[in-house]
Design goal:
Elements: E1 2-8, E2 15-20, E3 26-31, H1 34-44, H2 54-64, E4 67-78, E5 81-90, E6 93-100, H3 101-111, E7 115-117, H4 119-125, E8 127-128, H5 136-149, H6 152-163
Parallel strand pairs: 4-7
Antiparallel strand pairs: 1-2, 2-3, 3-8, 4-5, 5-6
């Protein structure tokens, strides 16, 4: 998979990283958090922070310990949440480390590690575009059709589970920020 881009869901204002299969025109949209979107975009755009950010720090620590990030894999979609693993190699031994997909992708771009997705994840969640020329309008239209099939609650539940937070009992107005 390659990172096709990072965009925003216009309905829910959530960032989406769009992965593209190496072969063909299949795209895997993964809703991610704002900090992870910023981390991925920063690296893709060649920007650097004055001090290491979290994903930079992790990759730096691994390098100092002579641990190589071999690959990251989006392993499954469970209860509207993508799960991933980071495969590292230490002294010739491969270790699989459970990760949020957004963190795994942010680590992959820093470590220049390949990104994979399990076949069943692609079969279940990828969007296929017809023809060789794919334009962003087609992708946005396909996302809109996808969004029509799911509810905002699906994503809210997934985000709460991913963050390990509890559902608020009542939503305060947005003016309270």
């Amino acid at each position: 998979m390659t990172i096709y881009g990072v965009s925003f869901d216009l309905v829910g204002k959530q960032p989406i990283v769009l992965l593209k299969t190496a072969e063909g025109n299949r795209y895997l949209p993964i809703w991610i958090g704002h900090p992870e979107a910023a981390a991925i975009l920063m690296k893709l755009q060649g920007a650097t922070a004055p001090r290491p950010l979290t994903h930079d720090l992790l990759v730096n620590i691994l390098a100092e310990l002579e641990v190589e990030v071999a690959r990251v894999t989006v392993t499954e979609l469970r209860e509207n949440t993508f799960h991933a693993s980071i495969t590292v190699v230490q002294n010739g031994n491969e270790l699989e480390i459970d990760s949020r997909s957004s963190d795994a992708i942010a680590v992959a771009v820093r470590a220049q590690a390949p990104i994979f997705a399990a076949d069943d994840v692609i079969e279940e969640s990828a969007i296929e575009m017809e023809g060789d020329e794919v334009n962003e309008e087609e992708i946005v239209d396909e996302f809109k059709r996808f969004l029509d099939r799911v509810s905002a609650e699906d994503f809210a539940e997934a985000e709460v589970e991913e963050e390990g937070l509890e559902e608020p009992e009542e939503a305060d107005s947005e003016d309270d920020d």
